[in-house]
Amino acid sequence: MPANDFLKNKNAAAKKTSKADGRVGLSSAQSSEPLRLQVFLAHSGVASRRASEQIILDGRVSVNGQIVTELGTKVTAADEICVDGKKISLEEKKRYVILNKPAGFVCSLSDEKGRPVAADLLKEKYSERLYNVGRLDMYSKGMIIFTNDGDFAARLSHPSSQVEKEYIVETSQDVSQETAKLFEHGLRVDNVFYKCLHCDVLKARKIRIVLIEGKNREIRNMLESQNIGTKSLVRVRIGNVNLDDLRPGDCRELTPDEVKGLLALCR
Fold it and tell me: Where does residue 92 rank: exposed (0-12), middle (13-18), buried (19+ CB within 10 A)?
C-alpha cells in the first residue's frame, strides 16, 4: 500500500489537533499530538520548515518504513521517521548559536564536492542537529546563526523580516562616495535589482554596508558591476546581535534577550 494512502486515515483524524503545528519549543514530552511532517522535521533540527518541505518532496523522508512525499502528512513521536535513512526525533532543548565562520567553509548541511561545512565547526560542542539561518558564500566570513528551532528560523529568514545585516568589506580598488550613494539608490545587474540600506566609506578601500535583503552574492555583484574587486567580506551584525570579539571558528549561544530581540525585529 502506498505510504500516502497508508496515512490518510491517520491524517484525517488529526485535523482537529493541527493547532499544535505552530507551537514553539516543542519537546518529546509534548509530542503526543500529531504534527505536520515538515513541522516535525523542523523541530527535530533537520532544517527550517521551508527547507524541510523540499526534503519531503525530494523523497528523502520515510514514516514507519515507507517513503512519504505528501506535505500534509501528520505524524507523532510514536512514529519512526527517517531522513536519508537516519532516524530523527524531537529535540527537547532549543539552541540558538552564532558562529564566526572562517573563509573556506560552505553553509549547507553537507557538500557534494567535499568542501568543509560550517556546521561541522559546532559538532564538538553541540550534540543537537543545528542548521544555518541564511547563508554566507564560501569566501565570506563572519556571523552565521544556527538553530534547531524551525519557527525561529522561518521568521528570521522570511523575505519580509527586514532584519538588518551589517558587513565590513575590504576592496581591491577605491570606493568613491558617489559609488556608495549609487548602492544606496539601487542598481540593476544582470536583470537583478540590488539596493543596500546604508553604504559608508570608512577608508578608500574599506566600506561598511547594511542590507535588509539576502540575495545571492549581493555585495560582490554590486561591487563587480563597478569594476571593484572584493578582498575581504565579513558580516559583523545581524539585527541586534554583534559579532564583537568572537574569534574565527568560535561560537557562542545567543542570550534569551538576544533571541527575543531578533524576533521583535521581524516584521
Answer: middle
Phi, psi for 129 (deg, rounded to 5) = -80, 110
Contacts of 1 (CB under 8 A, 6+ apart): none
Which pLDDT belongs to residue 17? 34
Low-confidence ranges of the chain (pLDDT < 50): 1-6, 8-31
Task: Say what the pLDDT of residue 37 is.
Answer: 94
SS (H, E, C) 100-162: EECCCCECCCCCCCCCCEHHHHHCCCCCCCCEEECCCCCCCEEEEEEECCHHHHHHHHCCCCC
**Tell me, what's the pLDDT at 77?**
85
Cell, residue 1: 500500500
Rounded alpha-carbon distances, angstroms, from residue 189 to 123, 225, 226: 39, 7, 10
- Asked if residue 43 lies in contact with residue 89, where contact means CB atoms within 8 angstroms, the answer is no
pLDDT of residue 247: 96
Q: Is 200 helix (H, G, I), strand (E, B) or coil?
A: strand
List, for residues 164-174, the tens digit of each pLDDT value. Answer: 999 999 999 99
| pLDDT at res. 23 | 37
- If phi > 0 it is left, if psi is from -120 to 50 it is alpha, else beta; for residue 171 that is beta
Round to whole Å and give the CA distance between 33 and 7: 15
Catalytic positions, written as ranges: 137
Taking alpha carbons only, the member of 126, 107, 116 closest to residue 47 is 107
Distance CA 162, CA 164 (A): 6
- Cα 134 from Cα 30, distance rounded (Å): 29
Nearest to residue 223, comparing CAs of 256, 244, 194, 254? Answer: 194
Quote the pLDDT of residue 32: 63
Gap between the Cα atoms of 223 and 227, Å rounded? 7
